[in-house]
Design goal:
The protein has 249 residues and is an alpha/beta fold. The chain has twelve helices and seven strands. It has a single domain (22-248), classed as Vaccinia Virus protein VP39 (Rossmann fold). Helix 9 (168-177) links the parallel strand 4 (153-159) and strand 5 (179-189). The longest helix is centred in the N-terminal third of the chain and has 13 residues, at 19-31.
């Protein structure tokens, strides 16, 4: 569980007459991409599929390295900050170029099954080519409608994908559905910070308020075990987005 003191800091709302907070929200609204709120989900989904299937998606692997998300994400698993030991069935949602899947292949127990799903067929092809492994199964799937039976997986990893559904509850509920009770989730998603607004603009996604996201998890029976931080700088500036370990009750 996240310490109460930590949650208290997260849940604090600006008081009346706090101009810096107000200015930050205005800048965020000006910079962030709001396409997801202006078109139907079907139209938005096609836009996202086209973006990731095209040149920008081809750059995703390099962008993950340049931004340090890939090496710092690997550190979470290598140091057992998110511990994969004992997990047998893993679903990597929105696997993209295979950034998280490459770590799963290194640090999951031998014999564990890994399913990589993504909305874009092209991203799945890129992931398969980069991973060079017969272990993962690659499945084209929409996070809002995962094609898996209830309680199919012990673990779900979801790196910067939840922000591509109109409502966090929809994506979280689907991932909870396919997890066994006691199953754990590694969730990374874009926060409604200044850096998150720029991420939103570049990758055509929305951003989430940390406290609101935590409340949604709680309502869905997803227990927040702990907040995870890539580095002290990540924690100080909230530059790397929201990263948490969640357990299904």
């Amino acid at each position: 569980m996240i310490k109460k003191a930590s949650l208290a800091r997260v849940k604090r709302r600006p008081r009346d007459g706090e101009p810096p907070k107000k200015r930050k929200k205005i800048i965020h609204r000006l910079v962030a991409n709001d396409l997801i709120n202006r078109v139907s989900y079907e139209q938005y989904r096609e836009k996202v599929r086209d973006k990731y299937s095209g040149p920008q998606g081809a750059f995703l692997e390099m962008a993950s390295v340049i931004s340090l998300h890939k090496p710092l994400g690997e550190r979470l698993l290598r140091k057992r900050i998110f511990d994969l030991r004992g997990i047998r069935r893993i679903l990597d949602v929105g696997s993209g170029a295979g950034q998280i899947a490459s770590h799963l292949l290194k640090y999951a127990d031998a014999g564990s099954s890994i399913v990589c799903c993504d909305l874009s067929f092209q991203m799945l092809r890129r992931a398969r080519a980069r991973l060079k492994s017969d272990v993962p199964e690659h499945v084209a799937a929409d996070l809002a409608r995962l094609p898996f039976a209830d309680e199919s997986f012990d673990c779900v990893t979801c790196g910067y994908v939840l922000e591509h559904v109109p409502d966090a509850r929809t994506g979280l509920a689907e991932m909870a559905r396919v997890m066994v009770p006691g199953g754990r989730m590694l969730l990374l998603t874009t926060e409604d910070s200044f850096s998150g607004a720029f991420t939103s603009r570049m990758w055509c996604c929305q951003t989430y308020n940390r406290a609101e996201l935590y409340r949604t998890c709680e309502e869905l029976g997803l227990e927040l075990r702990k907040e995870l931080w890539f580095t002290p700088m990540h924690k100080l500036f909230r530059a790397g987005g929201i990263c948490v370990e969640i357990e299904k009750r």
